[in-house]
Amino acid sequence: MPEPRRTAVEIAVQDVAGVRVALAEGADRVELCVALGLGGLTPSAGLVRAAVEEAREDGRTGFVHVLVRPRGGGFVYDSDELDTIVADIRFAREAGADGVVVGALDEAGRVDREAVARFVGEAGGLEVTFHRAFDTLPDSLGAGDALAQLGVARVLTSGGAQRSADGIEGLRALAQRVDGRLQVMAGGGVRVQDIHALIAAGVDAVHLSARESVSGAPSGPGGGDAAYDITDPISVREAVAAVRDVRP
After folding, report:
1. Has the keyword Flavoprotein been applied to this entry (predicted)?
2. How deeply is 109 buried, as exposed, middle or buried, from its count of CB atoms within 10 A (0-12, 13-18, 19+)?
3. Which pairing describes strands 29-32 and 227-231: parallel, antiparallel, or unpaired?
4. How far is CA 131 from the centre of its chain?
5. Which of 38, 97, 161, 165 has the greatest count of CB atoms below 10 A from its CB?
6. Measured between alpha carbons, how far is 90 from 118 in angstroms, rounded to an integer?
């Protein structure tokens, strides 16, 4: 009899060093992005290729999932932006990524079904995650049904709260509603001490950035803040351990 599948751990990383940390500490996959301070944006071509190579060298499959979000400031996109998203999905697929993380809303604030169908079609065999645009939707349960029908693999959500630990009931209701047709991944301020409660709510995965800020060299008046983020190996290790500590 096969062992029950445990909850997955996904780490949001912004550089190759973060990919290496996630690999070394036993995470199940990464969401590769930049500009986490803006909620995450599409990473560069060089970063995508380097992340894929790191995972391949480590013998890991299903590991690199690329965020495709062309800008901050909401999730309603014009035709040029949608074309850019589709082109970036194509690049991620051709570069060897294992999945893409996307999202789009229509002018009424609902899931843009036509756009998501384009994204899924361009992704081909890659797993598609719908990102936290989901947490802006007025009818999350109905949206879960729609995303499952469109062929999306999972949704990243805090259960509609600022932090996923405060959205437990929303996460539970969504997991019960989709009943395996769509994976529910808890994300949004996830702390290691929250993980057991999130798993008890029925989520399929937990998502955290495990980042800390360090000081860099002075960047000058045009270079922005001298501090930058790194992926903390201890936080990743503790998150993986917390998941493994839960007995199915």
Report:
1. no
2. middle
3. unpaired
4. 6
5. 97
6. 11
Dihedral, 58, 2, 144, 154 alpha carbons, nearest 10: 0
Per-residue confidence (pLDDT) for residue 110, from 0 to 100? 96
| 8-244 CATH pick, 3.90.180.10, 3.20.20.380, 1.10.1060.10, 3.30.9.10 | 3.20.20.380
Q: Please give the radius of gyration of the chain, using alpha carbons only, rounded to the nearest integer.
A: 17
- The domain segmentation of the chain, as residue ranges, is 8-244
Q: Which of 207, 108, 89 is CA-nearest to residue 157?
A: 207
Upper half-sphere CA count for residue 200 (Cβ side, 13 Å): 11
Give pLDDT, residue 132: 97
Question: Mean pLDDT per segment of 10 residues, for the chain of length 248 residues?
Answer: 73 98 98 95 98 98 98 97 98 98 97 98 97 96 98 98 96 97 97 96 96 75 76 97 83
233 residue type, one letter: P
Give me the sign of the Cα torsion angle 152, 163, 105, 74.
negative
Residue 221 pLDDT: 74
Nearest alpha-carbon partner for 96 in 44, 129, 47, 52: 52
What residue spans of the chain are helical by DSSP H? 16-24, 45-57, 79-95, 113-123, 140-150, 168-178, 195-200, 233-244
Q: Look at the chain and count its residues.
A: 248
d(CA 182, CA 60) in angstroms, rounded, equals 23
User: Any long-range contacts for 78-81 (C-beta under 8 Å, 24+ apart)?
Assistant: none
Amino acid at 70: P
